[in-house]
């Protein structure tokens, strides 16, 4: 059996950070299991986070009304995307699992990582009108978030001041990864390591190393399949809606049917 390939897209400036330690742990444990691990260290690469016409070699289709969505699709089809983008796309194509390691900034990812997402997951390469969500391009790949927070766990609860972490994760895990077809593994969240005691930080890393031992065999989070929606306006089919009418919780964080949100559905598989 061919060795599994793992791509870690890493976004932190400091080699002495907790994020660096989490990244290094993943490299060490997965490599020891026989995986081929590659790291895209975005800050070390000085990765360009801005999606512009400069991402396209040669003339663009419409310079007066430039549309990145359409121009990047055409450039991908014609082999005219910039070299830094195609290099990252090649890494992604080869990978069986992609781990995004980063510190949470403003309830989302750092700008340099958002730029990687914007520029690498281009129209055509990562998604199309016919290939998205459960029928997406990357159905055979797994992806996951691994990140640190600045706030303690209780602050990201349904009664906490930051709100439910499941809601925070929905745009990233559904709107990006699931949209592109990835099987989305439960996130690895390191709660406020900067405020934790040394022993607690050590325990966080030990738990991560333990999880890494079986990471490739984990079941993904659950999302509503594309065929549960009609093809005209992409509303939930009446039969599906009726089937779940008597359920206590909604289907997902976003497709909640005006019911209470399903607990932990963006944080634990099987919820």
Brief descriptors of the model:
271 residues, alpha/beta, 7 helices, 11% strand
Overall structural class, as computed from helix and strand content, comes to: alpha/beta
| Rg over alpha carbons | 19 Å
Ends apart, CA distance between termini: 32 Å
Q: What is the H-and-E element order?
A: EHEHHEHEHEEHH
Kindly state the percentage of residues in helix.
25-40%
Which consecutive residue ranges, at least 5 long each, have pLDDT under 50? none
Work out the strand percent: 5-15%
Number of helices: 7
The biggest beta sheet is recorded as: 6 strands, parallel
Word description of this protein:
The chain is of the alpha/beta class and 271 residues long. 31% of the residues lie in helices and 11% in strands. The protein contains seven helices and six strands, in the order E-H-E-H-H-E-H-E-H-E-E-H-H. Strands 1, 2, 3, 4, 5 and 6 form a six-stranded parallel β-sheet that branches. Helix 1 runs parallel beside helix 6. The longest helix is centred in the last third of the chain and has 16 residues. The radius of gyration is 19 Å and the shape is globular. It starts with a strand and ends in a 28-residue tail after the last helix. The model has no long low-confidence stretch (mean pLDDT 95).
Fold topology:
Blueprint: E1 5-10, H1 18-32, E2 36-41, H2 68-78, H3 83-94, E3 97-103, H4 111-120, E4 142-148, H5 165-178, E5 183-184, E6 188-190, H6 198-213, H7 238-243
